[in-house]
Amino acid sequence: MPLNSKVMTAIEQLNYRVTVGDVAVQSGLDLQVAQQALMALASEAGGHLQVTETGEVAYLFSPNFRTILQAKFFKLRLLNLWQRIWGVLFYLIRISFGILLIASICIIAIAILLIVLATVFKDSDNSDNGGSSNSGGFSGFPIAWMFSDWFYFFSPSPYGTPRTPASFSSKASQHSSMNFLEAVFSFLFGEGNPNQNLEERRWQLVGQTLRYNQGAVIPEQVAPFLDGVDAGQTIDDAMLPVLLRFNGQPEVSPEGEIVYYFPELQTSVGSSQTAPRVPFLQEAAWRFSSASSGQVMAAMGLGGVNLVGALALGRLLSDSAGLGGFLGFVQAIYPVLLVYGLGFLAIPLGRHFWNQWQNQRIGDRNQRRERLAQQFAQSKAQLQAKLGFARQFAKATRVDDLDLVYTTETDLLDQEAKNQAAIDAEWQRRIDRSGH
Predict the structure, then answer these.
(1) CB 432 within 8 A of CB 299
(2) Rounded to the nearest 5°, which phi and psi values hold at 179?
(3) Are 235 and 229 in contact (CB under 8 A)?
């Protein structure tokens, strides 16, 4: 079975000693998935099982279990290496869009300038030679000066600091953590889905609610973290995925009301349980960009300059024929320049409207869950009988070192000798007290 990175993270967050319920609550994983992943990880990383007198099981891991795994599995080492390489590659991809924008503007500006100057020189030659033109009109034109500044711009400065387009971004970019090249990517594509880990957060909050109430709840306590309630599903229907994930059981009160309890979440190595950090699950709104307003305006302005320049260049190229050299290259790639110029402004515009539509739906879901949380808070007095029935099934068991009857850390004979020594010591203390 593949090792689960969420389980590894949960073990580290829980100080390397966990129960299946602890991991399920911390990671938001299904109980069965958490149990299988724990057993696989304990087998591969040299973890230990600890069993109490009542049959509760805890898993103990070494703080360096990741190092043990990496030494054992070449695939994990390759994965860690790839994650570092991908971080560099993704950064290069991010800044490449800004570099392409500046390169596109430079190519367009140089091409337009060359065409205009060629036309001027051609007209001048025709005037000086009585109508005869010099072939091509470029023979006496010093082109090198046009490129020297750009080579100098991208070359390292004499003080060792590279000159990059980021140094020319607006003053407002000083308030952003990203440079201008990164801001161009953010302007184009945003920062991704802000709710990518929504399901993980949902099940963490549900698990925390179940654990805080000692594994016994009424559906009104869990509803603010679920979807579907007040939108076509009854509150008990919405509890079905919770029962499946955490292996819960329904119980019906004498009044016909349903409560739910989760035996496998009633055991933990923790000393205390904390309430969920928030009263309901709240989705984050989509942001247009994480760049500063100045950086966004600069990117938009350069995009406009690029598009206008591309349209002007297309007009000039359509009036020219038989171009060679640099201008021939520009004529060949002109469709790419035009598509890039159009896409640079069309993609953010489309994202703007799409974000508005998504945020409207997110707002509706947040309001629905918040309303459920408020309804539960306001109706606690009416739900006291139902809460009281649920508390009959509440239970919290802590796996303590003093309760252990078996652990795979030491040999069974050594454990029996240690337990017998503890029993003898306890009897001796009782004899000493009775003698006094």
Answers:
(1) no
(2) -80, 180
(3) yes
Give the list of residues 6+ apart from residue 274 with CB closer than 8 angstroms, or none.
Answer: 208, 212
Residue 319 DSSP class: T
Backbone angles phi, psi at 214, to 5 degrees: 60, 35
- Residues 299 and 296: their CA atoms lie apart, in Å, by 5
Calpha distance 376→430 (Å, rounded): 52
Pull the structure tokens for residue 424.
């003898």
User: Can you give the length of the chain in residues?
Assistant: 436
Residue with tokens 């994990």: 76
> Which residue shows structure tokens 């724990």?
38
The DSSP 8-state label assigned to residue 379 in this structure reads T
Place of tokens 């929504």: 198
Contact 307, 342 (CB under 8 A): yes
Tell me which residue of 57, 372, 404 sits closest to 222, measured CA to CA.
372
One digit per residue, the tens of pLDDT, for the chain of length 436 reads: 567 889 999 999 999 999 999 999 999 998 989 988 888 888 888 888 787 766 678 889 989 988 888 777 777 778 788 889 998 999 999 999 999 999 999 999 999 999 888 888 776 766 666 554 444 443 333 433 333 343 333 334 333 343 333 333 333 334 557 899 999 999 999 989 999 999 999 999 999 999 999 999 999 999 999 987 765 568 888 888 999 899 898 998 888 889 999 998 888 886 556 788 899 999 999 999 999 999 999 999 999 999 999 999 999 988 876 677 899 899 999 999 999 999 999 999 999 999 999 999 999 999 999 999 999 999 988 899 999 999 999 987 776 655 555 555 555 455 555 555 666 666 667 666 666 5
Instruction: For residues 268 and 279, give the distance between their C-alpha atoms in angstroms, rounded to a whole number.
Output: 23
- 3-state SS of 48-63 is EEEEECCCCEEEECCC
d(CA 65, CA 46): 8
Residue type, 208: Q
Are the C-beta atoms of 97 and 184 separated by less than 8 Å? yes
Closest CA relative to residue 208, chosen from 222, 193, 223: 222
Contacts of 366 (CB under 8 A, 6+ apart): 280, 282, 283
